[in-house]
Design goal:
Number of strands: 9
Largest sheet: 5 strands, antiparallel
Oligomer: single chain
CATH superfamily of the largest domain: Jelly Rolls
Protein name: AraC family transcriptional regulator
CATH architecture of the largest domain: Sandwich
Helix content: 40-55%
Order of helices and strands: EEEEEEEEHEHHHHHHHHH
InterPro entries: AraC_XylS_family_regulators, Homeodomain-like_sf, HTH_AraC
Distance between the termini: 18 Å
Keywords: DNA-binding, Transcription, Transcription regulation
CATH topology of the largest domain: Jelly Rolls
Organism: Nannocystis pusilla
CATH class of the largest domain: Mainly Beta
Structural class: alpha+beta
Radius of gyration: 21 Å
Number of helices: 10
């Protein structure tokens, strides 16, 4: 998808920004001449690439070098902030690091965390939203800092985070939650699915997805309710029960908190 936003006063070495939304279903990434850094910016989103399943949470990062294309299956809508870096900017960063610009390459990396990269990306976005008051030099400086972070010794994968759920446990737990959203879900029952104690589940689940179990369940129920409401085949009271809420007002409160809208607002909105 071509970038729709660029920093005002774009300089040749300045990064470019784009907000990307990937719909559920088959997702494709076309090769481009620029390097791309994607910071996941929305609710948790599940995806599958070949035989590997994963769930992205806010702040997790992907790096797609120039010329790289990709294809995967998206189970949930995914939104992210894309920072595009020109090869010229990356070559300049390589020279600043004392590397051979002709040999410096950005390796592809997926679903990792780096607070400095995330901070730079959001600083670029804040500058764009403010109308670029600091000018193109500021944007270029941030772009160079991002390229240096990706190329330099500090760009190596960060130390392994404390252990969370295994990939198999996480898949079993999230599948169980998804299959039973319309029922009463207890921490003990979910822990049994993972084969661990409830207290252990609370800790490992948060390490894996960055949020407590109950928050994840509420978000999934809100997303199911949203999908059912947009189909327009069921009254809101039935949608609430089908999504696992105790009653319609409970659904309304949760939807307002998670999405910032009410069910009636959704049903009144014109279809895209």
């Amino acid at each position: 998808m071509p970038p729709t936003d660029a920093l005002a006063g774009l300089a040749p070495l300045s990064p470019r920004l784009d907000h990307e939304t990937i719909a559920a279903g088959l997702a494709t990434l076309a090769a481009t001449a620029d390097h791309r850094v994607r910071v996941h910016a929305g609710p948790p989103a599940r995806c599958q690439c070949q035989h590997h399943r994963s769930t992205y949470t806010r702040g997790e990062i992907d790096v797609f070098p120039a010329g790289i294309s990709d294809e995967w299956h998206q189970s949930d809508v995914s939104s992210g902030l894309i920072v595009q870096l020109t090869p010229a900017l990356v070559r300049r960063a390589a020279g600043d690091l004392g590397l051979d610009p002709d040999r410096a390459e950005l390796p592809p990396r997926h679903q990792f965390r780096d607070p400095q990269i995330e901070h730079i990306a959001w600083a670029l976005e804040a500058e764009r939203v403010a109308g670029s008051p600091c000018g193109p030099v500021f944007a270029e400086t941030l772009g160079l800092a991002l390229a240096v972070r990706l190329l330099g010794p500090l760009a190596a994968p960060p130390p392994r985070r404390p252990r969370g759920l295994t990939a198999q446990q996480l898949r079993r737990v999230t599948d169980y939650i998804e299959d039973n959203l319309d029922r009463d879900l207890s921490l003990a029952a979910i822990a049994d699915i993972a084969g661990i104690s409830a207290s252990h589940l609370k800790t490992l689940f948060r390490r894996s997805l960055g949020q407590p179990v109950h928050t994840y369940v509420i978000h999934r129920r809100v997303e199911r309710a949203r999908a059912l409401l947009l189909r327009g085949r069921m009254p809101a009271s039935e949608v609430a029960l089908a999504a696992g809420f105790s009653h319609q007002s409970h659904m309304t409160r949760c939807m307002r908190r998670v999405l910032g809208v009410t069910p009636s607002t959704l049903t009144r909105a014109p279809s895209d």
